[in-house]
Amino acid sequence: MAFLKEAATAILAHGGGNWVWKALTRAGRRPVVVVYHRVLARGERPLDRTQRYVTAAEFTRQVTYLSRTRRATTLAELVADADGAGPAFAVTFDDGYGDTYRVAFPTLRELGVTATAFVTTEVVSGGAWQWWDRLAHALSESVGETFRAGGRIYYLANEKAVDSAQAALTAALKRSPRREAIVEDIATQLGVAAGVPEGLYMSWEEVRTLHRCGWTIGAHSQTHRIYTTMTGEETRADVEGCAARIEREIGERPRLVAPPNGEYDDEAVAIFRRAGFTGAVTMVGGPIRPKAGPFRIARVAPNGGEPWALFMLRLSGLYDMVRRL
Fold first, then answer.
1. Rounded CA gap, 194 and 241, in Å?
2. Which of 66, 111, 117, 180 is 20 to 30 A away from residue 234, measured at CA?
C-alpha cells in the first residue's frame, strides 16, 4: 500500500499534473514560507515520533533546492508585500527547539539564508516542557507499564503501543485547558521525573545569537495554548506577555506571531494588531494566496520520511488542494 501511495505521488508530481496545476494557479510564481519544528542531527532519535520533524539531510536538501529555484528573503518582506515578491521563499521554525540553533542555523548560514524563529517563551525560559514532549518522554520511559487516563487503561506493551498511546492522547489533549495537569498525572503514575533534557529547547542566549546574526524572532505564545480555546482576555494576556518577554530578552519587540497550531480567528487578529504585530502565519499549506493579507500567511510544512515528490506537491499547493477534496 505504501508503494502504491508513493508511486501515485510521484506520477502526480512528475507526470504533468503538478505542472498543469502550477500553470493554472501560477503557484510557481507565488512566494512560499516553509515551516519546520525539529531538525534532527544524523542518527538522532526523535523524542516524540508522532510530531513533525525532518532529518538534517532532508532539511539541507529542501533548503538547497529552494535556494536554487527561488529567491531567499525574509518573512517580514513577504508579510509586507507577498503579492509583489514573486517566486521567493522564507524559512520559519516553531516552538523553540534546540536543534534550530545546533543543526538548522549552521546549515542556513552556509547557504546564506536567515530565518524566523517563533519561540514559546515559557519553554525557552528554561525548566518547562512543551506538554507533548513531556507526555512522550514519560511514555517512552515506561515500556511495560500501565496507566489510566480519560477513563481508559493504557498498557505500554512495546514501542508500537507507546506510539499509539502518544498519538491518541496528543489528539485528545491538544485543546484541553487541563492538558498539562493530565500529562503530569500520567507521568506521576509512571514514576517519571520532570527534568527537561539538556538542549531540547533553545536558551535565551542562543535566541539572542540568532537575532544578532540576522534572524527574526517571533512570538509563539507563552505556553502553546491554542487561541481558539481561550477567551479574548486570555489571548490578549498571552500575546502581550509573550511579546514583552521576547523584548526583554533580545531588546526588540516581536512584530510577527505564529498562533499555536495555526488556529485563530478575527478577534485574535484584532488583538494581534493592538499588541503591535504586523503579521501572522497559519498552518494552511501551499504558496501564499493572492491578496491573503499580512495576517493569513500560508506555510508549507514538510514531514520527515516523505518522498521528494510529496515535497514538490506541498510547494505547489496541489497536495493541500487534493486533501480538501
1. 25
2. 117
Burial class, 116, CB count within 10 angstroms (exposed 0-12 / middle 13-18 / buried 19+): buried
Q: Which are the contacts of 27, defined by CB distance < 8 A and separation ≥ 6? A: 21, 286, 287, 315, 316, 317, 318
DSSP code string of 257-274: E--GGG---HHHHHHHHH
Question: Hey, what long-range contacts does 235-244 have (CB within 8 A, 24 or more apart)?
Answer: 235/267, 235/268, 235/271, 236/271, 236/274, 236/275, 239/271, 239/272, 239/275, 239/277, 240/275, 241/121, 242/120, 242/121, 243/219, 243/275, 243/276, 243/277
Residues 6+ apart with CB under 8 A from 161: 154, 155
Kind and range of the H or E run holding 116: strand 115-119
Structural domains for the chain: 29-127+198-324 (3.20.20.370), 131-190 (no CATH)
Q: Beta-strand (E) ranges in 160-253?
A: 216-219
Average pLDDT value for residue range 5-9: 52
Question: Which pLDDT value is given to residue 1?
Answer: 41
Contacts of residue 39, Cβ cutoff 8 Å, sequence gap at least 6: 53, 54, 55, 56, 59, 97, 99, 100, 103, 104, 107
Report d(CA 169, CA 179) in Å as an integer: 10
d(CA 99, CA 31): 26
The reported pTM is 0.92
**CA–CA dist 235, 248 (Å, integer):** 20
**C-alpha dihedral over 91, 97, 99, 102, to 10 degrees?**
90
| Cell numbers at 293, concatenated | 493579507
Q: At CB < 8 A and 24+ separation, what contacts does 2-7 make?
A: 6/307, 6/309
Give the model confidence (pLDDT) of 76-134 as tens digits.
999 999 999 999 999 999 999 999 999 999 999 999 999 999 999 999 988 799 999 99
